[in-house]
């Protein structure tokens, strides 16, 4: 993660920091939306271009991830607990980034099929006070 930006900027470390900050901002936005209502457009929080987002539920295996992507991408288990979903971003059929997401519910519909930047919208249920 982060190497694509590192190639462009010469700094993989700053790319990783930028992605970590973006992921944290997304998680905070989803929590706010759950508390106050509203929706969160994932594209507003990604510091890179992508054309499809694949969301995998907790405990997804490498085989499940690779099958959905349509090619071999990983042998690693990327989610090892109930609260971690995996967001895999692709552009022109290649993985350009992935995040371990721990910011609360993304909504069941996001797990069903790959989404374009326009479709990747989190609409969390508002939590009662």
What's the layout of helices and strands?
Elements (H helix, E strand, L loop, with lengths): L2 H7 L2 H25 L3 E2 L10 E5 L5 H8 L15 E7 L2 E8 L19 E2 L7
Antiparallel strand pairs: 1-5, 2-3, 3-4
Helix pairs in contact: 1-2
Keywords: Lipoprotein
Organism: Paenibacillus mucilaginosus 3016
Protein name: Putative lipoprotein
Describe this entry's structure for a reader.
With 129 residues, this protein is of the alpha+beta class. The protein has one domain. It has helices at residues 3-9, 12-36, 62-69, and strands spanning 40-41, 52-56, 85-91, 94-101, 121-122. The protein has a three-stranded antiparallel sheet, with helices on both faces. It has a two-stranded antiparallel ribbon with strand order 1-5. The protein is globular and about 45 Å long. The chain starts with a helix and ends in a 7-residue tail after the last strand. The relative contact order is 0.21. It comes from Paenibacillus mucilaginosus 3016. Keywords: Lipoprotein. This is Putative lipoprotein.
């Amino acid at each position: 993660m982060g190497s694509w930006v590192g190639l462009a900027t010469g700094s993989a470390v700053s790319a990783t920091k930028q992605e970590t900050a973006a992921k944290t901002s997304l998680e905070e936005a989803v929590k706010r939306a759950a508390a106050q209502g509203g929706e969160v457009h994932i594209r507003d929080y990604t510091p890179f271009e992508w054309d499809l987002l694949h969301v995998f539920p907790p405990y997804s295996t490498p085989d499940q991830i690779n099958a959905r992507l349509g090619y071999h991408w990983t042998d690693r288990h990327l989610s090892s607990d109930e609260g971690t979903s995996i967001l895999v971003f692709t552009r022109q059929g290649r993985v350009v980034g992935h995040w371990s997401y721990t910011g609360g519910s993304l909504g069941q519909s996001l797990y069903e099929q790959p989404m374009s930047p326009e479709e990747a919208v989190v609409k969390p249920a508002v939590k009662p006070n």
